[in-house]
């Protein structure tokens, strides 16, 4: 009997649909055959009648005309012809009947074959053979549908089917409270594939049951392991997996999904707020806010501040708080620190209701080496490389995934699909891509193994990224796949089919490093480092870049973003405002870590909440938060700042070479000339009056934004009057303006109106026109 389980849900549905379809085919065929019989018989009878009637008529006519013939001969002739016609009718009827029988037998034979095929598609344990085959081939991108613990009914008995992969295990058992966490033969798993898939159906197990796998290695040593495909986990420090239904949430975010799937993300405002759920805000007693409690406050705040996306540091299960989530043990398990599976879905949905997309940090390069996790899962390297020079990640104390192992690819790519499909997320920020691409990354000579060509490129990682991104964009074409790639690896954001890695965005670490070094330099010396501001423009269109200021830049003695700024308190706040305006004006999408938006001075501490009290206690912090709110809105409202981030027509230098005064001037452009914005960024504390700049149009200009406004804590060197350009070329522009440049600030000038040029008609042209008119007469 074919077993029906949650793991085989799709296969069962397919089988049912197929059986119903075949049944429909049989009914249709019988109906057609029946109609065919009637039709054929009718035609034959008509044909006989056409033969009979004229023959009888002719005979009677002849009998009357030729009275010399006997009546018996006439009757004899009639009988012979009638007999021949009857034989023809019977033969035709038999042919039709044979066809009906043959068609029926073929339908029944096909029906049996289909049933046999469905039986053949399932193994003795009710697992889909094709799903197992794809898993071992590295091509099952939804392996979570049969791997792990699935609530199901088999042979009319409710329970759970457990399935795991342990290729070198001698035996595997499920252990839980019922077995006193020790081996019980009734809970022994059966080997379901030569490649090492183990499975068992246990009746009576319910949702919420804690469990682990007792894996016996080659020497029969028992290893207690959490489920690699576990959908939920115990709260740390406990490490058991928990039977859970991950697919019973009633989503109400269809409007968001539809809108997302119509958006051209490359020509949209993308301003990302990066956050850590465990330290964004805490309760008065120091406890975490739950997913549901965060859903009531966090989405509204992110929207109010003008961001368009939130990026959450890893929410996959991890045992150590100090890892911030980057040492994962439960890739399919949303962390239980803040609540349940459906609670997290509620949080995602709450962000969507506020028009905020959700991006998750994802770590497919390395995993936690804790004994209950993936590390040496069956006593041998299963998920990691066998060669220590490839597997050991000494910098992070982790193990590197063996990306050349096909089952590992199924595990990881399925995991990415899982978060998009089951949690409705809108993007993944893939962690430490460079560490995966380079075999010698952060390793000394002798600590790494070259590839087959003697190079330092990880060929398996390259292929993995291509397959990952191809699979994701095939099913979810409108999401974000962001690479944290810190080198100059080419074509990171180009499609796999043309040789790229297939991501659609990449962090611009070069820009980040240059600008963060620059803002710490004394303004009087900045003229010697001017190229740090301008050099990124040399490669800004080589990839689809995101400009990131992430958590990594505000920890471990690097100082907070505001504290990186040069000078006293006034200059630090002014420098922060200038920095953000320059960042929002620069081509590329944006990412900023939490706490920067109100000028938190201390570094990020993952065990403490942000210093929200600063906003209430100090006007400068409140003004800074107001600044962020208003400049983010300004960014979102002006398509010139994002529509052509990846097209040269959206950006133009006016003056990139004024290193003596440390001033940069550039334009951001859209389709309409009136949308043009001119940025004047002054990286010194000097004020400049009657400062001449080139502008593209003859007309009126106005100040659109000024980071030096007193509303934000600045010195209020603002421009209140309308500026009228002169037809005096400057900075390679046809027109020019005289402006006031505020100190340590960014001034944004917009076009108010463009004067129409009056055509000057020469006298000679008028004479010639009159002569031409006379000639035409």
Describe this structure in words.
This protein is an alpha/beta fold. It folds into four domains: 6-121; 129-242, Immunoglobulin-like (Sandwich); 266-507, TIM Barrel (Alpha-Beta Barrel); 645-754, Sandwich (Immunoglobulin-like), CATH 2.60.40.1180. The strands form seven sheets. The protein has an eight-stranded parallel beta barrel with strand order 9-10-13-17-18-19-20-21. Strands 22-23-24-29-26-27 form a six-stranded antiparallel sheet. Strand 4 (190-191) and strand 5 (197-203) form a beta hairpin. Helix 6 runs parallel beside helix 7 and helix 9 (406-423) runs parallel beside helix 11. The radius of gyration is 38 Å and the shape is elongated. This is 1,4-alpha-glucan branching enzyme GlgB.
Name the descriptors:
eight-stranded parallel beta barrel, Immunoglobulin-like, 19% strand, 777 residues, 4 domains, six-stranded antiparallel beta sheet, disordered N terminus
Residue share in helices? 25-40%
Per CATH, the class of the largest domain reads Alpha Beta
- State the CATH architecture of the largest domain: Alpha-Beta Barrel
Strand content: 15-25%
Point out poorly predicted stretches.
Answer: 1-71, 107-119
* Principal-axis shape: elongated
Q: Please give the order of strands in the largest beta sheet.
A: 9-10-13-17-18-19-20-21
Number of domains: 4
Strands, count: 29
Separate helix tally: 18
The CATH superfamily of the largest domain is identified as Glycosidases
Profile the largest sheet: 8 strands, parallel, barrel
**Average pLDDT, all residues:** 88
Global Rg: 38 Å
Distance between the termini: 102 Å
Secondary-structure-based class equals alpha/beta
CATH topology (level 3) name of the largest domain: TIM Barrel
């Amino acid at each position: 009997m074919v077993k029906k389980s949650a793991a085989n849900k799709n296969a069962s549905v397919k089988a049912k649909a197929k059986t119903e379809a075949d049944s429909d085919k049989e009914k249709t065929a019988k109906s057609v055959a029946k109609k065919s019989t009637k039709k054929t018989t009718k035609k034959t009878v008509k044909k006989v009648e056409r033969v009979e009637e004229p023959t009888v008529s002719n005979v009677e006519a002849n009998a009357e005309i030729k009275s010399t013939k006997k009546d018996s001969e006439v009757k004899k002739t009639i009988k012979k012809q009638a007999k021949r016609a009857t034989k023809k009718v019977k033969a035709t009827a038999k042919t039709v009947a044979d066809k009906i029988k043959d068609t029926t037998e073929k339908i029944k034979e096909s029906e049996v074959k289909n049933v046999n095929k469905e039986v053949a598609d399932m193994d003795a344990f009710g697992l889909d053979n094709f799903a197992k085959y794809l898993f071992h081939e590295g091509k099952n991108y939804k392996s979570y549908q049969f791997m792990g613990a699935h609530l199901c009914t088999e042979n009319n008995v409710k329970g759970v089917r457990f399935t795991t992969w342990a290729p070198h295990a001698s035996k595997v058992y499920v252990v839980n409270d019922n077995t006193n966490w020790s081996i019980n033969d009734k809970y022994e798993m059966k080997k379901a594939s030569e490649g090492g898939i183990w499975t068992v159906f246990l009746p009576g197990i319910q949702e919420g049951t804690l469990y682990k796998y007792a894996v016996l290695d080659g020497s029969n040593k028992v290893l207690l392991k959490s489920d690699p495909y576990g959908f939920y986990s115990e709260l740390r420090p406990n490490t058991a997996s928990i039977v859970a239904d991950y697919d019973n949430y009633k989503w109400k975010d269809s409007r968001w999904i539809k809108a997302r799937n119509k958006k051209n993300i490359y020509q949209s405002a993308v301003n990302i707020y990066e956050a850590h759920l465990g330290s964004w805000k805490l309760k008065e007693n120091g406890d975490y806010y739950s997913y549901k409690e965060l859903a009531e406050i966090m989405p509204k705040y992110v929207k109010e501040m003008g961001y368009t996306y939130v990026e959450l540091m890893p929410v996959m299960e991890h045992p150590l708080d100090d890892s911030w989530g980057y040492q994962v043990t439960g890739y399919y398990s949303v962390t239980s620190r803040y609540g349940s599976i459906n609670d997290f879905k509620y949080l995602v949905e709450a962000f969507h209701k506020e028009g905020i997309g959700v991006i998750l940090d994802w770590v497919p390069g390395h995993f936690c080496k804790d004994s209950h996790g993936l590390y040496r899962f069956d006593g041998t390297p299963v998920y990691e490389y066998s060669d220590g020079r490839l597997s050991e990640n000494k910098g992070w104390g982790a193990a590197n995934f063996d990306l050349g192992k096909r089952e590992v690819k199924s595990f990881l790519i399925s995991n990415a699909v899982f978060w998009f499909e089951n949690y409705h997320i809108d993007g993944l920020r893939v962690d430490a891509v460079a560490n995966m691409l380079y075999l010698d990354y952060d390793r000394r000579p002798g600590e790494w193994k070259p590839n087959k060509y003697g190079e330092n490129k990880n060929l398996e990682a390259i292929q993995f990224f291509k397959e990952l991104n191809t699979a994701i964009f095939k099913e979810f074409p409108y999401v974000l796949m962001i690479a944290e790639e810190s080198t100059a690896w080419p074509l990171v954001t180009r499609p796999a089919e043309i040789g790229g890695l297939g991501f659609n965005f990449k962090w611009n670490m070069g820009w980040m490093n240059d600008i963060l070094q620059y803002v710490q330099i004394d303004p009087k010396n900045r003229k010697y480092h001017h190229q740090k501001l301008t050099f990124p423009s040399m490669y800004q269109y080589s990839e689809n870049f995101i400009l990131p200021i992430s958590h990594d830049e505000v920890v471990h003695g690097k100082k907070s973003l505001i504290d990186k700024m040069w000078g006293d308190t006034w200059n630090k706040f002014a420098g922060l405002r200038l920095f953000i305006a320059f960042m929002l004006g620069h081509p590329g999408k944006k990412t900023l870590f939490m706490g920067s938006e109100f000028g938190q001075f201390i570094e990020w501490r993952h065990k403490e909440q942000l210093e929200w009290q600063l906003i209430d206690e100090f006007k400068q912090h409140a003004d800074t938060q107001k600044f962020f709110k208003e400049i983010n809105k300004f960014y979102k409202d002006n398509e010139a700042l994002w529509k052509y981030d990846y097209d040269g027509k959206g950006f133009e230098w006016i003056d990139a070479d004024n290193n003596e005064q440390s001033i940069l001037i550039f334009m951001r452009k859209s389709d309409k000339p009136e949308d043009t914005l001119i940025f004047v960024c002054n990286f010194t504390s000097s004020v400049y009056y009657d400062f001449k700049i080139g502008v593209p149009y003859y007309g009126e200009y106005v100040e659109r934004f000024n980071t030096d406004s007193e509303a934000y804590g600045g010195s209020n060197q603002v421009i209140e009057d309308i500026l009228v350009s002169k037809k005096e070329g400057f900075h390679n522009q046809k027109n020019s303006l005289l402006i006031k440049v505020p100190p340590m600030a960014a001034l944004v000038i917009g076009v108010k109106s463009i004067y129409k040029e009056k055509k000057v008609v020469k006298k000679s042209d008028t004479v010639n026109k009159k002569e031409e008119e006379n000639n035409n007469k």
